[in-house]
């Protein structure tokens, strides 16, 4: 295990003031895609400072849930809020670092690693102002955090899948947000990149950042997770603390692969009706 994955220590950030709005909230959220219900009556509230894993079988609606929380996929019914504001009216986008499942600048775009990471500063920069010293320093720190300083000048297309995932994480870090949303950051990622991610995540946890991540396999990130939400067929099947060693009837975030996919609250396997 990497050094900081073991250090799940106390947050360096002051606790959230009482009465502060949740980082994410959804009330009776429904999403239909192609006329099919994908999210069905989801209720959840994620406070600032929580480190939450969203688990579930393929097609259970994990990506759709986080996209809906960010306003990237519209709700067909119900409501969502980001820091107390509906996503459509939310303006403080610098507060949220989103790490999508895949790098989308790849195909033929000759952007360098540094350029992609620097794009994470956009929400922080004032319009039409060139990047300043602070921006460059933030990009340098982000590259260093994911171990890609030496690759900064390389086209991203030349990096491995795991390294490209680290570029996306660095892009989110560069914006210095207080909240991270990561969609399967370890999917198809090599062991070295997984260890880097666990290190980075441990640092974020120590800093008191809010983290919401979708994962199939938590691996070295498992000890950092404070809460797990399991989706089943577009509904929340489990929502509770992810205590290490708690293998009772609750899903254990780090052991999905041992028991094919997540388990439901009754301890039985989640139906595979929606698996792809
Ligand atoms: N743009 C879309 N149009 C139509 N259906 C979609 C769209 N995106 C996702 N779906 C469907 O919605 C369901 C939930 O997809 P989603 O990607 O949210 O699941 P997931 O739990 O994140 O799956 P995975 O683990 O495979 O990423 C799936 O059945 C999927 O096929």
- The CATH topology turns out to be Rossmann fold
By secondary-structure content and strand pairing, the structural class works out as alpha/beta
What portion of residues belong to β-strands? 15-25%
Please tell me the overall pLDDT. Answer: 79
- Element pattern in H and E: HEEEHEEHHHEHEEE
Total number of helices: 6
Domain ABC transporter: 24-258
Organism: Sphaerisporangium dianthi
Region (Disordered): 236-276
Keywords: ATP-binding, Nucleotide-binding, Transport
Topology (elements, then pairings):
Blueprint: H1 3-6, E1 24-33, E2 36-46, E3 51-55, H2 62-69, E4 77-82, E5 96-99, H3 113-118, H4 133-145, H5 161-174, E6 179-183, H6 191-206, E7 210-214, E8 227-232, E9 235-241
Parallel strand pairs: 3-7, 3-8, 5-6, 6-7
Antiparallel strand pairs: 1-2, 1-4, 8-9
